[in-house]
Design goal:
The chain has helices at about 10-15, 30-40, 95-105, 115-130, 150-160, 170-180, and strands at about 5-10, 45-50, 80-85, 105-115, 130-140, 165-170. It is of the alpha/beta class. It has a single domain (about 5-180), classed as Rossmann fold (3-Layer(aba) Sandwich), CATH 3.40.50.850. α4 packs parallel to α5. It is globular.
Amino acid sequence: MKRALIVIDVQESFRARPLWAEIANPDIAEPVNRLVRLARVHGDLVVWVLHCEPGSNDVFDPALGHVRLLDELERPRTGEPLLHKTSHNAFTTTNLQQLLTEAGVRELVVCGIRTEQCVETTTRIGGDLGYDMTFVIDATTTNPVGGISADAIIERTEAVLRDRFARITTVAALETELGASLV
């Protein structure tokens, strides 16, 4: 296994926040599910990552029940790790790098919620760690931040990552490249 799909923070915690009403793509599960099916068809590792803040008494506190995958998402299969992180990236507070090393993974495909935060940060660190990074821009989403629109944030993220930290692509382009359309 050379490639892994990292699904970052596509979780009910975000839907439980008032900001969900402003999310750029409330149907984020659909493109993520397409990537999950594509990864499985090609024998790639699928790694599920959830953000949690134990003891915070907010939507990211696992005790409140929102730290779980969006209901519309494919369910993890046997052998697909489900990691819980407490940092902005999927590496620092998990054993992700160890799992990838043990599986012989050298290429990461990333998607998820908060384009400019957890998905971008994971991409930058993955690139620094030597992984070939593929950022699937239309399988990420975010909300406006500090008066900047979600679309502007997504556009900025794409610009700063492109050809420096990651290859930027879309779900459809990846399906074409890998020879399968699994809508």
